[in-house]
Amino acid sequence: MRLSHVLLFLAVLLTALVPGCSAKGPNAPIINGWHEPISKQGVYIVQPGDSLYSIAWRYGLDYQDLAKINHIRAPYKLERGQKLYLVAPGKTPVKASPHSAKPKSSSKAKPAQSTVKISPKAVAPATVAKGSVLVWQWPAAGRVLHSFNAANLQTKGIDIVNTAGTPIKAAASGQVVYSGSGLPGYGYLIIIKHNATYLSAYAHNSSVSVKEGQEVKKGQVIALMGNTGADRVMLHFEIRRYGQPIDPQSLLPKR
Question: Whose CA is closest to 148, among 140, 157, 138?
């Protein structure tokens, strides 16, 4: 073999081994729990399919704060091309701490788990605002592949793996406020509002069985597990408190 041929072969081999050089397919790994940074202008233009909840989720904001800044009242209807301030006019955007929330949470990040088996029937109570009780259950049966880690941009929730078509259930009762595929990294996503404090999200679904505005009960099947926007079949599950991600396993039943 000629020296030129050897050098060409080595160049091709090195290119294939360097991260980021290979082409990404539609199901290439994408960061879960990703937050888009707010621009210096702190302004967002509403696009088709957007909702106040999805925009707040995209930027790691509390939807109530976003509505207040823009003087929008419930049911928070938006129009295509509408200008939304992500921060109060005249203020400089501040990057929120990935593990902060309005009332500080004492929960700590847990190490990754690879052998946890989940029963979707188990429940546990969680005290929320105004003395009400919000009851949570695991959203799907399966194995926890990745646990929450507040310091890691890739783990703003937990990833539960199982086979395609595994039923995904509402982790608590609430209202579907978003159902779509407009948020990068989440594939087909459902967001449920449980009260003024908590939202939960269910990503990478293959199909959904609920619509925006629909009231759902804890344990109700809302989707089927898939791999939209992911490199494998799984459910990416998040719980957000006042817009900020918290460890779902701090509210879910212990196993």
Answer: 157
Count CB-CB contacts under 10 A for residue 40: 8
Distance CA 159, CA 147 (A): 7
b/e per residue 49-71 (b: at least 16 CB within 10 A):
ebbbbbbbbbbbbbbbbbbebbe
Distance CA 89, CA 126 (A): 36
SS3 assignment, position 225: strand
Cβ neighbours of residue 15 closer than 8 Å, sequence gap 6 or more: 21
pLDDT at 194: 98
The answer to whether the beta carbons of residues 248 and 32 sit under 8 Å apart is no
Q: Scanning the structure block, which residue is given the tokens 């509210």?
A: 251
Calculate the CA 179 to chain-centre distance: 12
In our burial notation (b when 16+ CB lie closer than 10 A, e otherwise), range 120-136 reads beeeeebebeeeeebeb
Question: pLDDT > 90: what percent of the chain?
Answer: 57
pTM (2 d.p.): 0.72
The domains found in the chain, sorted by start residue, are 117-250 (2.70.70.10)
Contact partners, residue 60, CB within 8 Å, separation at least 6? 35, 96, 98, 243, 244, 245
